[in-house]
Amino acid sequence: MGDRRERRERRRVREFESFVAGAAGRLLHAATLLTAEPSGAAPAAQQLLVGALSRTYADWDRLRGEDPYEHTRHDLAVHFAHHAWRYRRPRGGLLGRLPPQERLMLVLRLYEGVAEEQVAATLGLPVERVRELSKRGMAAMLSSAEAGGDGRQGIRRLVSGAVFREAGAPDSGGLGGARRGERAGRDPEGVA
Amino acid sequence: MRLPDRKETEVRAMLESGTPGPVPTDLAERAMLLGLRTAHRRRTAQWLLWIFFAAAVAFAVWAAVTEPWVGPPQQTTPPLGW
User: Fold this and answer.
1) Residue A98 CA neighbour count, 13 Å, CB half
2) Which residues of A lie closer than 8 Å to B, measured between beta carbons?
3) One digit per residue, pLDDT tens: chain A, 192 residues?
4) Whole-model pTM above 0.90?
5) Which of A2, A49, A58, B11 is least surrounded by CB atoms within 10 angstroms?
């Protein structure tokens, strides 16, 4: 009995170690982008990642075919979103000028390639909010790449304008729908 | 499914561009230690919850059997004629 448990534990350790050996590089890069630390000296990112990995390890026997990489990424994202205020201060990383939520969107959407709907479900946000945050983050990144200066306010105004215009489009669609509904409502009268 | 636009590709390239720092060699070990502690804590919490549940069931059974809220039977009859 004890022998079997020991063997299972040994196998778990082996599996976990090989998982970490394969995935830690990419996950650490993602965590470093999130905490906005310079790569190479990222103690907060390491701590964030160790926490997420430890919870994956604790759940290892209950994963039942779930991808441990996705499990860890999910945990990392949720944990980061929950403690975002800790990472507000820029620390000299690539995404340092972005607020934590925008960083998270860029990392999940673009670096990890997670679908908008999935990001929204993971973080409990509406899809529109996810779209807006990642758009804002992208605009800030592009402006800083082009200008190198602090064009953040201008970009913010630009982006909110774009969002406003976009929000207007479905609105008019909604009006059309209402009109259609009106017509549909009147039709039976015509028949009668 | 929409195609990724130029801006997305550009920002993605920026995110991928940074050279990732070296992964500390003891990362897995640290995670395992912390994970064991988490698992232990969860197990303890679960155990306590079960103990509480068992105690509640035992109390309910005892109470149903002995009915402690019923007073002892009257030893004397109430006086007549008042």
Assistant:
1) 29
2) 13, 16-17, 20-21, 24-26, 28-29, 32-33, 39-42, 46, 49-51, 53-58, 60, 94, 106-107, 110-111, 138, 141-142, 145
3) 689 999 999 999 999 999 999 999 999 999 999 999 887 888 999 999 999 999 999 999 998 889 999 999 999 999 999 998 888 887 888 888 889 999 999 999 999 999 999 999 999 999 999 999 999 999 998 888 776 544 444 444 444 444 444 444 444 433 443 444 444 444 444 443
4) no
5) A2
